[in-house]
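Good morning C.,

I know you're traveling, so I'll keep this short. The sequence:
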Amino acid sequence: MNEQHEDHIQTADYPLLAIRNVVVFPETPKRLFFNRPQSLEAIKFAARMKRPVVVVTLRGPEREIRDLHDIYTMGVMGTISQLQRLPNGTIQAFFSPTQRASIQGLNKDGPFYTVKAAPVASRESADQELPRLVQALKQEFFNHVDFEKRSGNFQWSEELDRNDVPAGRFADAVAPMLNASLDEMQEVLETLDTRERVEKVYTLLYKEMKQKEFERDLKAKVEEAVGKRQKEYFLNEQMRAIQEEMGESPENDEFGSIQEAIDAAEMPEHAKDTAEKELAKLRRIGMQSHEATPVRNYLDWLVSLPWSKATEDNFDVAHAEAVLDEDHFGLEKPKERIIEFMAVSKAVGELKGPIICLSGPPGVGKTSLAKGIARALGREFARISMGGVRDEAEIRGHRRTYIGALPGKIIQTMKKVARNNPVILLDEIDKISNYYGGGPTAALLEVLDPEQNNSFMDHYLEVEYDLSKVLFITTANDLASIPLPLRDRMEVIEVSGYTELEKVQIANRYLLPKQKKENGLTENQLRLPQKQLLKVIRGYTREAGVRGLERTLAKLCRKAVTERIKDGKNTAVRMTDAKVTKYLGPPRFVRGELEAQNHAGMVTGLAWTSVGGETLSIEVATMKGTGKLSLTGTLGDVMKESAQAALSYVRSHANDLGIYAKTFKDLDLHIHVPAGGTPKDGPSAGIALTGGIVSALTGIPINWNVGLTGEVTLRGNVLPIGGLKEKLMAALRAQIETVIIPDQNAKDLAEVPAEIRDRLRIVKVKHVSEIFPILLEQLPLPVVEQDEPVTADDLPAPQNNDSNPMPSMD
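The tokens, ready to paste straight into the viewer:
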């Protein structure tokens, strides 16, 4: 308490000298440099009035004194002498610090800054271990000093050799000689207890000694490595001199260029070691050897791969949205998933996500969507066509033992793009040849697995190559053709076909301007009104995508250019119905008079194919016979079984449907699906087949503007189907007004655009009996079996009784 009271009594105002990046300790004189106006005025005042000053360190090298928080609250007090003005106006002063000073206030008024400070004395520790601790510090420090003195890097003070130097004084003298940080030095200055101060200085000294030891070891290793390389260099020089005498000097130039390429390729260590071994082998066998060419080709592949070169990713979500909207109209769900992918990548800080598979019909923009992703990210883009790939070697490459061996498509593409993080599109992955237990599909399992492709092994390279930074995108038309293990590695994004309204927008925004430009037409030289554009879409194209529409518009542009050149006119060509027919010929897709009439046994089914939705005209005919069932039209096994199930349902409910049981023994049924050259399969035509069979056996016509899709069971239950959106779009293209779908597919209607839902009457059914009031012109009347034989002439005539309810089929 007395010591604190004494310090309080000695508190006074002293001129302040603030310094940067250095801490001054008591009884350790130091030359300091000052150039701030306040510091220069403080030095003048102290020299003139012979007043002590307080030197304190700024808390940061860039700080200026605004308040007390900008300086440390512990400094040193001392006197200024030996002032010298340097040519640049800076004052050099010799500062003799006497003791520590505690800063308690700051005054910025006046020509120089002053601080309210009090001298602070060290607290001598009574610890009995302190002398041994000081002795250990001296021994370690003197050993350190001896080494530094020999290297000429140390300013030694002979005063430290005395044994009577106090512990606190010795610690204060050693601390400024260490390479410690500013905070560590200030911490030593603020430590008043002598034992604690000695311990902290000892810790700093130990850290520096270990750092010096590490640097010496590193230097020795570097010198050893350099010495080995110099030895190799001298040996190579001798070899070069010998080869020059033998006329073989050009080889050494080539070896040197290969070595430079290896060093510049920035390979990982395992790849560089392999390259160095191959180069050493090449040196041994010489360039003239027949074995040199394969080795040289292999080295060329190694050094040309982008081992560490990458493009910087752009995760700007707004930019990505703008790019995708600029190149694609519609496709809201695929765009939304891609934007989510980029947003997560931005939040995480790196692009790490699933392998994306864009699945949909041809011509809907899957490939251009992948290009848009690459452009949005700012990455290089490459496309690999997987259609018809038969051999694993096309993915993994060939062994170098084969003549003409090359790396696989993946490594070739990496060399082509010259960056290790491109966007690679594996196009038409469902068209790859599939071999059970192997083939290219098995090779792709590693390529498309983010947990494995960081160590992809190409058979030709035989060194691991990191593919984890590559963003792989695949496309497919039919997911069922992709093996399950491969499909499991990908996140499928459905890219559905375009609606009629979307096709109009795509034609006006993208296709027509593009074809005008490619065919030498300006914007105003060809005008295609909305009405005629719809005629082109409806009458000349019937597809899920827009490739056929683009070809049709290109034909219109060519015809228009030809007409302008022949007639020598500079006026704009305006498309009318007559000109569209003249240029493109009669419409390809027109519903004929026969097709637009109600016929018994003719029903329209809806089917899904890999190229989009399609309508199926199913015809059912009866003839005298023995009860046989004939199926034609290139039907698959599943569809044949569906027809058998439909017939079994009709036979089991024959009387309720107005059919006598003996009819099946006296008549043959023939079910035919036109376009016999096109294979057809699947269970979703079950209710259509049931309706066609009932219509043919009862003679009741079917409403031609009704389409059906749904699987039927032997009990007549209607099961859900897939591809609902594509089927509804096909119905709309075929001008069908009413579509019957399974009730369990009602949830899928949310994925169908409102444009389609609003233009169709969609009826949901749970049981096949519910289709007859909508499908048939009238309901069949139930019949009762008679004892006498029944012929076809005895079948009841159709009756107009729409209000007659169907009996329960359960």
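Safe travels,
E.
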